[in-house]
Amino acid sequence: MAIRRAMSGRIMGRPAVFGARSMSSWWRGVEPAPKDPILGVTEAFLADSNPNKVNVGVGAYRDDNGKLVVLECVREAEQRIAGWLNMEYLPMGGSVKMVGETLKLAYGENSEFIKDKRIAAVQALSGTVPTWANHHNIWRDAQVPQKIYHYYHPESRGLDFTAMMDDIKNAPNGSFFLLHACAHNPTGVDPSEEQWREISHQFKVKGHFPFDMAYQGFASGDPERDA
After folding, report:
1. What is the pLDDT of residues 132-179, one digit of tens each?
2. What is the DSSP secondary structure assignment for residue 55, as one 8-state letter?
3. What pairs with residue 68 in β-bridges?
4. Which of 35, 107, 180, 190 would bridge with 40, disulfide CB 3.0–4.6 Å?
5. What does the H/E/C string look like for 103-135?
6. Which of 151, 147, 149, 127 is nearest to 139 (CA)?
7. How far is the C-alpha of 177 from the C-alpha of 131, rounded, in Å?
C-alpha cells in the first residue's frame, strides 16, 4: 500500500508538473493568428460602447433595436424536427434525406434533372457567402488562380451589367464564378430575369461553372420564383 501511494505520488505529482511546463514551452513561440476580417468586425462591435453602433459584420435580420429576428418558418421547422433527428455521425456525403429535400427546394419537386439523376450533391458546412476573405484563402491554399469580376456600380447603386458581361466573356473557358442567384449579399442588387438569361447563355458558350445560392426565397418571398 505504501509503495503504491509513493508511486502514485511520483506519477501524479512531479512528472505531471514537468509535463505541463514542457508543453507550455512548446507553444511559447507561436504567435496569435490575426483576427478574422469578418468575425473581427463583430468583436469590435461588441466592444464598442457607442449606443448608435451598427454591426455590419455578419448578415442577419435584425429589428429596430438591433435584436436578431428569427423567421417564423425557422421556428416551425425547429418544432417539426425536434426529438426525432438521428444523432449518430453522418456519412461522408451528409444526410441523404436532407440532400434530397434540398435538391427539390433548389430545382423543383418535378425537376427532370433530379428524376434523371443528373445532379450530384453532398452536405457541407455553410457560411460561405460571396465573397468574403475565407473564399480568397480557400482558392489561395488550393493554388487556384483567382480574379475579381465587376458587379456593383456605386454611382447608380445598381448592377454594372456591361462590365460584368465583359469579364464573363474574357475569362478563360471553364472558369468557376462565385455568383449569388438571388438576394445578393452584401449589395442587395440582383440581375433581372432577362439579364440572368444573358448570363446563362454566355456561361454555356464559355463552359463556365456558376455556384452559390444562399438566400433562395429571401428576394421575392417565393422560393420557386427565386430558383
Report:
1. 667 788 888 889 899 999 999 999 999 999 999 999 999 999 999 988
2. -
3. 62
4. 35
5. HHHHHCCCCHHHHCCCCCCCCCCCCCCCCCHHH
6. 147
7. 11
Residue with cell 449589395: 187
177 near 150, Cβ under 8 Å? no
Measure the CA–CA gap between 46 and 40, rounded to whole angstroms: 10
40-68 pLDDT, tens digit each: 888 888 999 998 888 877 767 778 887 88
Mean pLDDT along residues 204-222:
87
Residue reference for cell 456605386: 154
Which conformational region is residue 148 in: left (phi greater than 0), alpha (psi within -120 to 50 degrees), or beta?
beta
- Assess whether the previous peptide bond of 91 is cis (omega < 30° from 0): no
Sign of the C-alpha dihedral computed for residues 152, 158, 160 and 161 taken in this order: positive
Please give the Cα distance from 107 to 131 (Å, whole number).
24
